[in-house]
Amino acid sequence: MAHDVHTPTRSHTEYEYLRRQRSKEMRSQLTSFAIMIFLTLIAFTTVSAGFSPYLIVPIILLLAAIQVVLQLYHFMHLSNKGHGTVAFFMFSGMFVAFITVLTFVTIVWW
Amino acid sequence: MDLNKKYTPQTWPDHPETATLEGKNKFVGFWLLLAAETVTFASLFATYLALKDKGPSGMEFTASGLFELPLVFAMTMILLTSSLTSVYAMYHMKNHNFKAMQAWLGITVLLGLVFLGLEIYEFNHYVHLGFGYTNSAFSSAFYTLVGTHGAHVLFGLSWFIALMLRNAKRGLNMYNAPKFYLAALYWHFIDVVWVFIFTVVYLMGVIG
C-alpha cells in the first residue's frame, strides 16, 4: 500500500509547536537567502573593482562554494535527518565532478 | 488505499514528502538523479574551461570582450529570488496551505520565465553580433553549457506549471506532496548550477 500513512490527530499544543518550529525554520531560510544575496554582491563588486585575477579567482570560487553549501544544506534540507544516503550520492557526484574539471583544466592543451 | 484521502493541517504529517513508501522511493531516486546531473554539468564545465577563448586563428570573440555583467547580475538575482519563493511554497506545503503554496509557486514560475526571457535575449544579442554556435570551439562550449542550463530552467518551469494545473482542484494529499517537493528540489539544483555558471563563465570570463 504505497500511499498508506497512519497519522494520529495531534493535540492542539503539539500542532501549535510544529507550526512554530516551521516558522522558525522559515526565518532561518530567510537569513540564508540574505547571506546568499550578500555573497553574490561581493563577488560582482570584487570583479568590477578590477583587482588582480590571481586574487579575484580564488575569492569568487570560495564565495560560490559557500553559496552552494547554503543552497544544499538549507534550501534543499541536506542537513536534515534521513538525508545520509542522498548526501552520499551527492558527494560522490561532486567528487567525480571535481576530478573531471581538474583533468580538463590540467591535461588538455592546444 | 486511498490516494485522495483528505487531510487537515492537524492530520497532515510532519514530513509529507517522505511519509509514504512511494514518497521515500522518489526522494532517494531523485537525489540520485541530481548527483548524476552534477556529473553531467561537470563535464560541460570542464569542456568549457578547456576550450575557453580557443578557436580558429584570428577569431573575433573572446570571453572578456563579449560578456556584460549588468544583465548577468539581474539574471542571478532573479534566479536566486525564485529559489527563495519556492522555499516559501514548500513552507506552505508543510503547513498544508494549498492556496498559499500555489501562489508562491506561481511567483516562482513568473521569475523563472523572466530569467529565461533574459537568457534568450542574451543569446539572440550574441548571435546578432556574429557570435554563433559554430563560430569557434569557445562559442560551441559556451552555448552548450549555458544552453543546457537554460533547457533545465525550461523543464523546471514546465514541471511546476504541469503540477499546478494538474492538482489545481485536487488540493494537497499524500499523492502529490512528494511531487511538489521534488520539483522544488529540482529548482534549487538549477540555482546551484547557475551559481557556478555566473562565477566560472561570466565573472571569470570578464577578468580574462
UniProtKB/TrEMBL annotation, chain A:
<keyword id="KW-0812">Transmembrane</keyword>
<protein>
    <submittedName>
        <fullName>Cytochrome c oxidase subunit 4</fullName>
    </submittedName>
</protein>
<keyword id="KW-1003">Cell membrane</keyword>
<feature type="transmembrane region" description="Helical">
    <location>
        <begin position="30"/>
        <end position="49"/>
    </location>
</feature>
<keyword id="KW-1133">Transmembrane helix</keyword>
<dbReference type="Pfam" id="PF03626">
    <property type="entry name" value="COX4_pro"/>
</dbReference>
<dbReference type="InterPro" id="IPR014257">
    <property type="entry name" value="Cyt_c_oxidase_su4_bacillaceae"/>
</dbReference>
<feature type="transmembrane region" description="Helical">
    <location>
        <begin position="87"/>
        <end position="109"/>
    </location>
</feature>
<feature type="transmembrane region" description="Helical">
    <location>
        <begin position="55"/>
        <end position="75"/>
    </location>
</feature>
<keyword id="KW-0472">Membrane</keyword>
<dbReference type="GO" id="GO:0005886">
    <property type="term" value="C:plasma membrane"/>
</dbReference>
<dbReference type="InterPro" id="IPR005171">
    <property type="entry name" value="Cyt_c_oxidase_su4_prok"/>
</dbReference>
UniProtKB/TrEMBL annotation, chain B:
<feature type="transmembrane region" description="Helical">
    <location>
        <begin position="185"/>
        <end position="207"/>
    </location>
</feature>
<keyword id="KW-0472">Membrane</keyword>
<feature type="transmembrane region" description="Helical">
    <location>
        <begin position="103"/>
        <end position="121"/>
    </location>
</feature>
<dbReference type="InterPro" id="IPR024791">
    <property type="entry name" value="Cyt_c/ubiquinol_Oxase_su3"/>
</dbReference>
<protein>
    <submittedName>
        <fullName>Cytochrome c oxidase subunit 3</fullName>
    </submittedName>
</protein>
<dbReference type="InterPro" id="IPR035973">
    <property type="entry name" value="Cyt_c_oxidase_su3-like_sf"/>
</dbReference>
<keyword id="KW-1003">Cell membrane</keyword>
<dbReference type="GO" id="GO:0019646">
    <property type="term" value="P:aerobic electron transport chain"/>
</dbReference>
<keyword id="KW-1133">Transmembrane helix</keyword>
<feature type="transmembrane region" description="Helical">
    <location>
        <begin position="141"/>
        <end position="165"/>
    </location>
</feature>
<comment type="similarity">
    <text>Belongs to the cytochrome c oxidase subunit 3 family.</text>
</comment>
<dbReference type="Pfam" id="PF00510">
    <property type="entry name" value="COX3"/>
</dbReference>
<keyword id="KW-0812">Transmembrane</keyword>
<dbReference type="GO" id="GO:0004129">
    <property type="term" value="F:cytochrome-c oxidase activity"/>
</dbReference>
<feature type="domain" description="Heme-copper oxidase subunit III family profile">
    <location>
        <begin position="1"/>
        <end position="206"/>
    </location>
</feature>
<feature type="transmembrane region" description="Helical">
    <location>
        <begin position="71"/>
        <end position="91"/>
    </location>
</feature>
<dbReference type="InterPro" id="IPR000298">
    <property type="entry name" value="Cyt_c_oxidase-like_su3"/>
</dbReference>
<dbReference type="GO" id="GO:0005886">
    <property type="term" value="C:plasma membrane"/>
</dbReference>
<feature type="transmembrane region" description="Helical">
    <location>
        <begin position="30"/>
        <end position="51"/>
    </location>
</feature>
<dbReference type="InterPro" id="IPR013833">
    <property type="entry name" value="Cyt_c_oxidase_su3_a-hlx"/>
</dbReference>
